[in-house]
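Re: that chain you flagged

S.,

Sorry for the slow reply, it's been a week of failed gels. I finally had a moment to sit down with the sequence you sent. For the record, here it is as I used it:
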Amino acid sequence: MRYSLNKIEHRNFKARITERLVEKHIKEISIPQLRKEGFDLVIFDRLRGFQFTGIPIPLSSFSLLSWLSLLGAEDTKLEELYNTTPDYRTINGDYHLQHDMDEEERRKTVIERWKKVGRCRADSIHAKVNTFYLKQGVMPHPEFYLKTIELIALLQVATDGLLFKMKKTGKMIPKSDILHILKNIKEATSDSYIEESDIPENIPVVSGEIEIVEVKADKASIPPHQRQNYKFAIERGYPLRYFHVFIISFENNHFEVEERILENADDLKETIRLFMKIARDRNTSR
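Prediction finished late last night. Pasting the structure tokens below so you have them in one place:
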């Protein structure tokens, strides 16, 4: 009996193969090259623990507040948000807010709720970032830590992962100095999966860089809204490591992986065009 996959199943099947090929490429080619360039620790993470996005369109007060809280929002910014986004002045259509309060009372109540939600989400993101680094056996330098938080806040789309390129600073932090961080993690999230016994007595401090990882296959392309977000991130100093997998032959287990590191936002469009041309030419020659 003959079987065939529907389009969604076929796409998901191809995606799993593509992801596995790129993970293999990163492990066997990209990471060794980066180690030669002087990075002490290189980690590719698919961000399953970071289920957060920045500012979607249209604006959502919840996700926007996570952004504002992370970047140190002031009440004046929240006042401006309240004045310019009337559709998001209430939470879950609160009848009391809409009908039983005067404008000034409503303004104060909504802004305080926004701040509370923002602090909660910010605490959760900080906890997950600290958990990630502690699981690697390191602690980020404050500047590197803030870069990690900023990138997570900047990303509005689901990426295929982040590549963390780290160098040891030569400094160590004793375990006793970070027990308060572990306490904050447990208070902020229930899925940290890290215990005091998992932490070494002395933890190296690292600095580094972070790249966004994007993976496509054959004729698939990065959609416009994703390109826009990546361009914004690149302009803020976060390169895009773009992998494109070309399926030469399933039967012969023949695949090719192209890799580009984009540090200039203007190069993204041309790189996509190049990969699309390669895919078209390969399909024509089959």
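What I noticed first: Strands lie at 41-45, 139-140, 162-174, 202-217, 240-249, 254-262.

Talk soon,
D.
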